[in-house]
Amino acid sequence: MNPLDALLQSRLAQGPIAAAEVMALGLYHPEHGYYRRTMSDGGGPWGFDGKDYYTALDLGSLLGQTLALRLEAAWEWLGRPARFMALEPGAGRGWLGRDVLNAVSGSFAEALVYVHRDDNPAARRAAEMALAPFLATNRARFAAESDPLESFTGAVFSNELLDALPAQPWRWEGERWTREVLTATGPEWQAADPGEAGAWFTSQTDGLEPRDGSIWCEVLPSVVHELALPLEAGLFLTVDYGESADRLLAKGADLRRFKAHSVDGKWHEDLGEADLTADVDFTRLASLLEQEGLSNLSHMELSKWIRIHAPLDEWGASWMDLPDAERKLRTENLLQLTLPGLMGSRFRVLEGWKEK
Ligand SMILES: C[S@@+](CC[C@H](N)C(=O)[O-])C[C@H]1O[C@@H](n2cnc3c(N)ncnc32)[C@H](O)[C@@H]1O
User: Fold this and answer.
1) 55-104 pLDDT per residue, tens
2) Domain ranges in the chain?
3) Within 10 Å of residue 43's Cβ, how many Cβ atoms?
4) Residue 56: what pLDDT?
5) Is there an atom of ligand 1 within 6 Å of 94 CB?
6) Is residue 245 exposed (0-12), middle (13-18) or buried (19+ Cβ within 10 Å)?
7) Separation of 175 CA from ligand 1 center, angstroms?
8) What is 56-165+220-240+280-354's CATH number?
9) Which residue has its alpha carbon closest to ligand 1 atom 25?
10) Whose C-alpha lies nearest to ligand 1, atom 14?
11) What does the pLDDT look like over 3-52, one tens digit per residue?
12) Ligand 1 within 6 A of 143 CB?
């Protein structure tokens, strides 16, 4: 039995455990958590063959190139400051930062300093390699999650950070709320008082139907506060799985397990050896950011965001000069992020702005 399953069994002897607690244990147990353990092959869980999941970054640099344009737009909006810090919490392998740093040039490149913040040890090792040339020239640096964040002008951006925060599924049964828990005999929906979560869900719909349900991320306000507070002025940008609050409720949002590129609802199995994710409630995220002083908040599908902000005609024309294999990769990357039904329509991008 793996060490987290053994730990879980002994805790279950004392009573049921909320799904959010199981998710926290599976991902963040200091020694055996999926995002805290050292993998036997010294690598990480991301990628294609023999791995668990891939992200938009494994498909190519299109996301980073488009993000670089948004960061440059923020730098222009701020009046071209001499120093523009771009903080990436949950930065994983540092590939998004690397793609941004590779894409920028001129005065903006001179102003940009990228900060990678993620205590995941396997990711940190991969990031040291991906960012090596930029670390050597002080255009990138690492920050530990426990390091206090000093005030800065620039941007906070993340890809698939918030969907990795522990979240609790709730379901409306017609007369009462139930929450998903793990018992000694398996998962169950048990009646409980949803408190603040119930008030939020009820405020986001014209009327609840039986089996409507959503997820509630308890730590979201503190994570948003911690990241938005030091941003004195600039752009806050989040790319993640998720939907608006009303759509999540209608869908009956739940936790998902990613293992060996298949997705299922077995969030309680193979703890520490499988990725667990929850949809992000973008309505709540926007509302929390507004409380932190951000304005002009908007969110949209990743595919739409790319079509609005990336000069695709120009980029497509420039790919014609590339070797066949490289051109094919760029084209596939573009299709994955812009065609309906593929990755670009499963992700959303939220932008919010903080004025001086
Ligand atoms: C799904 S992975 C995404 C990694 C990367 N952004 C990518 O797209 O490949 C989520 C990452 O968020 C990190 N993480 C979770 N909570 C965090 C926090 N409060 N601050 C910084 N990183 C965090 C985890 O360690 C993990 O590496």
Assistant:
1) 788 889 999 999 999 999 999 999 999 999 999 999 999 999 999 999 99
2) 56-165+220-240+280-354
3) 15
4) 80
5) no
6) buried
7) 37
8) 3.40.50.12710
9) 120
10) 90
11) 999 999 999 999 999 999 999 999 999 999 999 987 766 677 776 666 67
12) no
